[in-house]
Here is the input.
Amino acid sequence: MSSGARTLVDSSFDSNRLRTKTNSPGLKRTRAGRRGNREGSVYQRHDGRWVASVTEASGRRVYRYARTRAEAAAKLTAALKAVQENIPLPPERQAVGDYLTGWLDTTVRPSVRPMTYVSYESIVRRHLVPELGQIHLARLTPADVQAMMNRKLAEGLSARRVDYLRAVLRRALNDALRWGLVWRNVAALVRPPKGPRYEVEPLGPDEIRRLLEAVRDDRLEALYVLAVTLGLRQGELLGLSWADVDLGAGSLRVHHALQRFEHEYHLVEP
Here is the structure.
């Protein structure tokens, strides 16, 4: 192979089929690597790095870089899937912090409840970006994630809280994997931290009876009765209105939950 040559594999990785087509009588040979919209290829550069390239429906060419052919093939598969689903491919060369900030605005905010977004945004801003934000997204490793989790445990965060940080990062990297920005989800490769497990001890019949006797004639008596008899969550209890109650049928429907975010109270779907 000459110094100007490069190894090329099309998106189906069937080089024999490609060679047969280009060598068939009546077909004009075209320059290898040229693809139509929604197609892709994998090739090796002169410096040894592998490249996965994809053409979006708009005709824009997008490139993903990798150290091995297998990694490039995985990125190509993910990128092609995103293109087929008409998902715009974000730039690959970005830091973890930039990616997470954009992910919150473009992916999380439109798809989750407001309180979930507030929780995710707080975790990204207070924990993930300060710890991992300067690392190149494509170079993030399981060791980086493990070290971040160890530091958070040392700072006094509970194992459950640290695992929630890992879960948010894992969800963000799942989208990065789907868009072909990374070839594996490194957060999914890290084991969750171990912590004490607490058994839930519900109130017994005698304890419930004493509780209801203690709150009799209290202005919130109905709330306590519903809590111990139906097991509704606090937000669901506080979101109830008389329109949700059918006294004749003896039924109750939960249509809303009350949540507080952005310094105001809001009724949201339960």
Summary: The longest helix spans residues 159-178. The chain has nine helices and eight strands.
